[in-house]
Amino acid sequence: MNNNYVNFLVGLFVLFGIGALVFMSVTIGGASVTHSGNYTLVAKFENSSGLKEGAFVEMSGVRVGLIQSINYDPKAYESVVKLSLDNSITVPDDSVASIRTSGIIGDRFVKISSGGSDINMEDGDEFIDTESSISIEELISKYMFSQDK
């Protein structure tokens, strides 16, 4: 009888460990078990260099989503970035999406500066106003060549 009780506790411990490993794998992989759903917004930039799929999206300094995909539009000569946001996040339709860098040399992410409109964006909507990434190399180059004149 005592041996069955110990076996039951060991089995329960092993099941708990397997559950914890599955939860950690899903969480570290970027998926979420607890979220009810996401919606997608589209932002088009002239230059999205340094931006990667899976980078975070931030509003007011808080991570609110991830970059789902980055594609090139050959007709408009722009990069099309799809942002995946949680359904609980509302974005006014006059908001601005801009590409920023965390720190001086850090990873690039998309920052959403919320507007003041009462109408919120819905799944598949596109940002009207965007700000592309700033290349430090281009800034240094402009500064160096402007000094020669």
Task: Give a description of the structure.
By secondary structure, the chain is of the alpha/beta class. It folds into 2 domains: 1-31; 38-134, Beta Barrel (Elongation Factor Tu (Ef-tu), domain 3), CATH 2.40.30. It has helices spanning 2-28, 136-148; strands at 38-45, 56-59, 62-73, 78-86, 96-101, 108-113, 129-131. It has a 7-stranded mixed beta sheet, with no helix packed on it. The relative contact order is 0.18.
Number of strands: 7
CATH class of the largest domain: Mainly Beta
Mean pLDDT: 87
Percentage beta strand: 25-35%
Rg from Cα: 22 Å
Sheet having the most strands? 7 strands, mixed
Report helical residue fraction.
25-40%
Number of helices: 2
**What is the number of independent domains?**
2
Q: Order of strands in the sheet with the most strands?
A: 1-4-3-2-6-5-7
| Overall 3D shape | elongated
Q: Any idea of the CATH topology of the largest domain? A: Elongation Factor Tu (Ef-tu), domain 3
**Structural class determined from secondary elements:** alpha/beta
Labels describing this entry:
149 residues, alpha/beta, Elongation Factor Tu (Ef-tu), domain 3, 2 helices
Per-chain topology:
Blueprint: H1 2-28, E1 38-45, E2 56-59, E3 62-73, E4 78-86, E5 96-101, E6 108-113, E7 129-131, H2 136-148
Parallel strand pairs: 2-6, 5-7
Antiparallel strand pairs: 1-4, 2-3, 3-4, 5-6
